[in-house]
Task: structure prediction
Amino acid sequence: MKGWVDYQQSFYEKASSDSRLSPAHISLYFALLHEAGHTLALPFYLRRERLMRKAKICSPVTLNKCLRGLHEYGYIDYRPSFVPGQSMAMLIEFLNV
Result:
């Protein structure tokens, strides 16, 4: 099983050639990586306020846009919910490392 450093390294390798990513996407990915802790390959509940603070994102609209973008681009598996505190995410394991 991959560790935190492996996820970080494989993200850098994939993201370096992905022109769709903005600094907000990258910052959010690392906030998600930190929030995932030791459960890297498992879904975890999102704490939006904490993610916004860690990623230096000031707007919930930007947060949602970046979460959807990371999901669409294949970096995370994002499971939104209309119930507060029930949205989940899971980091995708890349095959290049």
Remarks:
- The mean pLDDT is 90.
- The first helix runs from residue 4 to 15.
- The chain is about 50% helix and 10% strand.
